[in-house]
Write a structure and sequence with these properties.
- The protein is an alpha+beta fold and 243 residues long.
- Helices cover 36% and strands 14% of the residues.
- It has a domain of 161 residues.
- Strands 1-2-3-5-4 form a 5-stranded antiparallel beta sheet, with helices on one face.
- The radius of gyration is 18 Å and the shape is globular.
- The chain starts with 17 loop residues before the first strand and ends in a 21-residue tail after the last strand.
- This is Beta-carotene isomerase D27-like C-terminal domain-containing protein.
- GO terms for molecular function: iron ion binding.
- It comes from Citrus sinensis (Sweet orange).
- It holds the Pfam family D27-like_C.
């Protein structure tokens, strides 16, 4: 990823027909964060997590799929190839694998890798079945938002369902992710665009992800059609040089 600027710029307000309304903080899911405050560490600092067996099992499954596309580890601090029964992947080693997948690949190639990995984790015919079970309705959007919080904690960390307004209609189909990676390239190419594209194209359920590069949080909005890359504010977001 080429550093476009030595200054961290303010992320512009997305021009989407949407507004986000937070619920009371006592409803925030806090499990997994090992910080004494129960909140993510401040911007620029690594957050400590206390992942359980199931979190590590899912991270291991996903990371092993990613390893097939990753360049070899170059140092002892990077993830070494693990045996099939080794559930030793934690969040940091999962991030290491993602970084090695990015090496030597263009933006489009990185996104295609994530798409292939996501498809490889699903049983045959899963996208078609998903389309039948969850047509692009308000109910489907709200249901998938509710599922994201407990079932994808291992991937996105602590999150909460929030109320959003899409084209003038309020619905609880937003998911506020408390903290994500501090790497702009990883956010955009390994998470935001491939996830949006996967849900919108493969599953037929529109999804827009709105990262906040000021506090490293992110909003997932089910039911919101994502803009094109050229029209998305993240297309002009420079890399961070001090994180």
């Amino acid at each position: 990823m080429v550093v476009l600027s030595l200054q961290v710029v303010r992320f512009p307000t997305p021009p989407y027909q949407i507004s986000l309304r937070r619920q009371s903080t006592d409803k925030i899911t806090r499990c997994g964060i090992a910080e004494p405050s129960g909140e993510p560490a401040p911007l620029g600092q690594k957050t400590k997590y206390n992942d359980g067996f199931f979190e590590k099992a899912f991270m291991t499954l996903f990371a092993r799929k990613m390893e097939k596309f990753a360049s070899p580890a170059k140092s002892k601090t990077e993830t070494k190839k693990k045996r099939w029964f080794d559930f030793g992947y934690d969040y940091e080693s999962f991030v290491d694998v993602s970084k090695r997948v990015m090496e030597g690949r263009s933006r489009q190639q990185q996104q295609e890798v994530v798409r292939e990995v996501l498809l490889s984790m699903l049983p045959p015919g899963a996208p078609a079945q998903f389309r039948k079970l969850f047509p692009p309705t308000k109910w489907a959007a709200e249901f998938n938002a509710a599922l994201t919080v407990p079932f994808f904690h291992w991937l996105v960390g602590p999150s909460e369902v929030v109320e959003v307004e899409i084209n003038g209609e309020k619905q609880r189909s937003g998911v506020h992710i408390k903290k994500c990676s501090g790497c702009v390239g990883m956010c955009v190419n390994m998470c935001k665009f491939p996830t949006q594209d996967f849900f919108t194209r493969e599953f037929g359920l529109p999804l827009t992800m709105i990262p906040n590069f000021e506090d490293m949080s992110c909003e997932m909005v089910y039911g919101q059609v994502p803009p094109s890359f050229e029209d998305d504010p993240v297309s002009t977001q420079p890399c961070f040089t001090d994180i």
